[in-house]
């Protein structure tokens, strides 16, 4: 009987070690919040954002092809970028290494910019990021960078080169200012 009770006690102890309680998920939310605060400690100057916007504008104007996961473009056909890749590469080349690589982490960087939106693109500063959710549960799933003059640079989908355009009004998710 003692062996049986010891066995049951061990099973209960082991199973409780792998059980997740509601507090565990609260801790996860707190960790995400702290990550966002850390990212915001390392924001670049507006001069860096202006330089990043100019680099994104160059990539979006030179025929850089869309390549999922891509972060390099030789302009003229070699390499390619996806939506978060043009953001990542432009900021890094402008001198800020604090930008993360993918859309779902870029949304946690910077600060909210409620004035900048597709309905008010003139309020967007160069380097602001506009995020979109075009369906699914992993939102946001698209990002564009404001480049000034109410325009954005983006790499949207396979078969389409990166381009400068007016921000989309549908499926808008949020704006984050990096500077």
TrEMBL record:
GO molecular function list: cysteine-type peptidase activity
Family annotation (Gene3D superfamilies): endopeptidase domain like (from Nostoc punctiforme)
Keyword Signal (UniProt): yes
Alphabetized UniProt keyword annotations: Hydrolase, Protease, Signal, Thiol protease
Signal peptide positions (record): 1-19
Family of this protein: Belongs to the peptidase C40 family.
Biological process terms in GO annotation: proteolysis
Name used for this protein in its record: NlpC/P60 domain-containing protein
Domain NlpC/P60: 46-179
Upper classification of the organism: Eukaryota, Amoebozoa, Evosea, Eumycetozoa, Dictyostelia
One Pfam entry name: NLPC_P60
